[in-house]
Amino acid sequence: QLQASGGGLVQAGGSLRLSCAASGRTISNDDMGWFRQSPGKERSFVAGISYSGYTTNYADSVKGRFTISRDNAQRKMYLQMNNLKPEDTAVYYCAADPRNSWSGNIWNYWGQGTLVTVSS
Questions:
Q1: How far from 57 is each of 9, 23, 26, 72, 101, CA to CA, in Å?
Q2: Which residues pair with 84 in a beta bridge?
Q3: Can you name the residues that pair with 91 across neighbouring β-strands?
Q4: Which H or E run contains 68?
């Protein structure tokens, strides 16, 4: 089970740090990722991180502003979001164990989502 947290309301230019906590299973062998979904849009890939933490990948829209990281000992993953923009407003989901590519929507485990709202 994955539990996402850390969302909230922030002004444009501000920062938030999302967390994803795993319970009931180890994640040390799983690639993990963050996705987001805005109203009326499909869920889209934001960032991914390999099981070791050594490899990361980002959507072009967040490169240079967001940083994904993980702590396998704590069974947690993070998304540091800086210089937030109104278009970053969305429900953010964490996911583990992709069935194919990181940017695909087919992952074996999903968190419940946390809402990020960026005001202009």
A1: 26, 24, 22, 18, 11
A2: none
A3: 37, 115
A4: strand 66-71
> Which residue is it, tokens 């485990």?
109
* Other Cβ atoms within 10 Å of 22 Cβ, number: 23
Name the β-bridge partners of 115: 91
Question: Of the candidates 14, 17, 74, which has an alpha carbon nearest to the alpha carbon of residue 5?
Answer: 17
Tokens 């695909």, residue located: 104
Amino acid at 104: G
Q: Which tens digit of pLDDT belongs to each residue from 20-49?
A: 999 987 888 999 999 999 989 999 999 999
List pLDDT tens digits, range 58-105: 999 999 999 999 999 999 999 999 999 999 999 999 999 999 888 888
